[in-house]
Every structure is written in C-alpha cells, then in structure tokens.
C-alpha cells in the first residue's frame, strides 16, 4: 500500500461527522483499492457552506454552496514524477453542514454521506468523472464497491450521483 500524507484543515467552529483517523483510513482505502503504489499527498479541508460557496464559484463558476469540491493537481501515473517521488494528488473540500442537510434526501446519515463524498472526491483526484452517463455509471459502481468496504452507520444502498450531474445539483 502507498504511503499517504493527509493534510487536514478545518474552518473555525466546523466539525466533521467522522474522526481524523477515519478520514485517513478512507483515503488509504481508496488509494489501495485503486492500486496506487506511489506515495501520495492529499489536502482535505472541512469548511463552512459560505467557504465552499466561494470555492465553487471560483473553480466551477457555480454561484451556490455544494457538498464537495475536488481540485486535482497530479496523478500517480504522471510520467514527469521521478520513481518514488510523492504525488501531490490535490485538494478535497467538504462542507459538513451542507452534507448533513442533504443526507435525508438520499436516505443516509450525515456521517455516511460524508464518507461517500470523501470517496467521491478521492476518485475525482484519481481521474474519475461523471459528466456523461457512461462515466457516471462507472464512477457510481466504483463508489458502491468502495463504500461497501467502509464501516457505515447503516446499510448504504446503490450510490446515485444525480446530485453531482451537470445541472442537477441544488
């Protein structure tokens, strides 16, 4: 398994619904199951709805809050990286209040929704996307597989990314 360095950051007075240790475990699980052997660095920020709104506007030109924003930097298979050189995967920004508010709509707990969106963000950093139906179906299936390997509060049924398809998120 690849060595993973997680740089965790919190906005003031914001709490994640899962522990720092669990965040690290989920990141490691995704990299392991994706076959990543290169050492990786990932930044994870836990922020307010207002903060993610600003980032969503700046990086995605979406003038609204959202649950997660992923900003990719490097890929583990980048040919410009020297053997053994750590890969700076990128940044995952999660908004726990937004996530908690949407969880009931999808039949999940706030912690389970957070786990799913952390997996979702990691897959984006590894090159997955959901802009077209075929890609979304593939990404959803991979999220299902990975989420089944994570201890959750309740059984989580098939992942549906309609909340993240273009024009469908609120």
Number of strands: 4
Nearest-integer average pLDDT: 89
Structural class by SSE content: alpha/beta
- Beta-strand portion reads 15-25%
Gap from first CA to last CA: 37 Å
- State the major sheet: 4 strands, mixed
Residues in helices, as a percent range:
25-40%
Q: Which regions have little confidence, pLDDT < 50, spanning 5+ residues?
A: 165-170
General shape? globular
Question: What count of domains describes the coordinates?
Answer: 1
Q: Which architecture name does CATH use?
A: 3-Layer(aba) Sandwich
Q: Strand sequence of the main sheet, in spatial order?
A: 1-2-4-3
Report the total helices: 5
Helix-strand sequence: EHEHEEHHH
The CATH topology is given as Collagenase (Catalytic Domain)
Can you tell me the CATH class? Alpha Beta
Q: Gyration radius, to the nearest Å? A: 15 Å
- The CATH superfamily turns out to be Metalloproteases ("zincins"), catalytic domain
Topology readout:
Layout (H helix, E strand, L loop, with lengths): L3 E7 L9 H14 L6 E7 L2 H12 L7 E5 L14 E8 L1 H7 L7 H16 L7 H15 L23
Parallel strand pairs: 1-2, 2-4
Antiparallel strand pairs: 3-4
Helix pairs in contact: 1-4, 3-4, 4-5
